Amino acid sequence: MAEGWIKLHRGITNNPLWTQDVFSRGQAWVDLLLMVNHEDKKILFDGGLVECKRGERILSIRHLSERWKWSRDKTKRFLDLLQSDGMITYKTDHKKTIVNVVNYSVYQDTIIQEKPVKSHRKATEKPLTDTNKNEKNEKNDKEDKKYIYIREFTENKDLIKTIIDFMKMREKIKKPVTDRALKSMINKLNELSKDESIQIKILEQSIFNCWQGIFPLKEGSYGSTGQNTGADKKKYNVKPSEWKPKATGGDDPI
């Protein structure tokens, strides 16, 4: 099965090519992904404000039937199919149907935001081969998997950023985190503490000391009293300005 993702603008639903014919099941599924909210919001419904979470949408069987050009029975059977397969959950009353896309973040988020790279290649040079593209795609797929592991573990933005800081530190000391190592680290982190604030400190301790693994908090280490000689930093040629990671605040790293 193909992995990775592409950006798809919601404006595609205004194109006649999207709506002129009877929808296929695959098209109806993508249509649901495009219709649900990309962030939490309150909407006016039936004279009052209703909170609608990220990945949810207030709809109706009638509206979906007309949009997809299906019968109401076929529309309901399709929603039942998606729900039985764990792709959505939905609840219907006499006024509305609330659809929730399960694991919506998996479809919409990524751990890495790529920056455009300026090319300085001469016109006489040969173009890059598809091999480079394939290697880049494989790398992005691996990064997407790591993102999924992290998002399944926590929604805490500060903890997510600290996990990524830990992974960056491992890259810096030439010990990159594999998928298996990330799973193992997350499991151990959960065993050491269920408190996310303590989990952040445990990770900060390893980041500050350039440790490959994670360990219970120690007195005198970063994340406990903040005292450390920095000897390990010099060993790995880490700049003093990078000794203390920014584990809180700032933009969402995902």
Automatic annotation (TrEMBL):
Name it. GntR family transcriptional regulator
Lineage of the organism: Bacteria, Bacillati, Bacillota, Clostridia, Eubacteriales
Instruction: Name the source organism.
Output: Inconstantimicrobium mannanitabidum
Instruction: Report the domain of life of the source organism.
Output: Bacteria
